[in-house]
Amino acid sequence: MTTRWRPSGVAPEKLRGRRLLAVLLGFPLTLAICPKPAASRALAAINVRVVKLRNDHGQVICTLFTPSDKFPEKSHKGMTIAVPIEQRHATCRFKDAPYGNYAVVVFHDENRDGEFNQNWMGMPKEGFGFSNNPSTLKKPVFDDAKFVVAQPVVEVTINLNYWF
After folding, report:
1. Which of 47, 109, 136, 139 has the highest CB neighbour count under 10 A?
2. What distance in Å separates the CA atoms of residue 59 and residue 13, rounded to the nearest whole number?
């Protein structure tokens, strides 16, 4: 016959009650410590309103960046969209973005070639802008254009800049 260890002087009924109490108290603690499954992560819509376009020609191209991207040059696949211009405004809508930090780069693709055109000196020939509208006298870093997505719908307004 095998005997189980138990503290001396404690009745088996009390041990069962303590085990049940430990399980009941441990369950909420386990839920608090363990991360939520990826399927339950909160998703948001990011609406980027682009203003101060000089005309309705062409299209606006918006690119969404995460902190791990090479801002402002290269973003993840599928994070760039082209939208039409109406009355010198455009709106880019990014759906199902997980909550977190983002930045957006936009440009006015006036000739619809899908490229950000520059002159022979590398100066922009088309309008451009960044989320948070930082100064365009120097190339911004991610933190200059960063915004936080922590609610179901986030609105961002970007003013375009034209150098020529």
Report:
1. 109
2. 75
Cα(141)–Cα(61) distance, integer angstroms: 19
Q: How far is CA 26 from the centre of its chain?
A: 34
Q: Which CATH superfamily is domain 40-159 in?
A: Immunoglobulins (2.60.40.10)
Angle at 147 between CA 57 and CA 108, to 5 degrees: 10
| Vertex 59 angle, CA 50 and 150, to 5° | 35
Q: Nearest CA to 149 among 105, 106, 107, 96?
A: 96
Among the listed ranges 31-40, 85-94, 111-120, 124-133, which one has the minimum average pLDDT value?
31-40
Type of residue found at 75: S
Instruction: For residue 51, give the nearest of 141, 123, 131, 149 by alpha carbon.
Output: 131
Tabulate helix, strand, coil % of the chain (nearest 5). Answer: 20, 35, 45
Percent of the chain with pLDDT strictly greater than 70: 74
Q: Give domain limits for the chain.
A: 40-159
SS3 (DSSP) at 83: strand
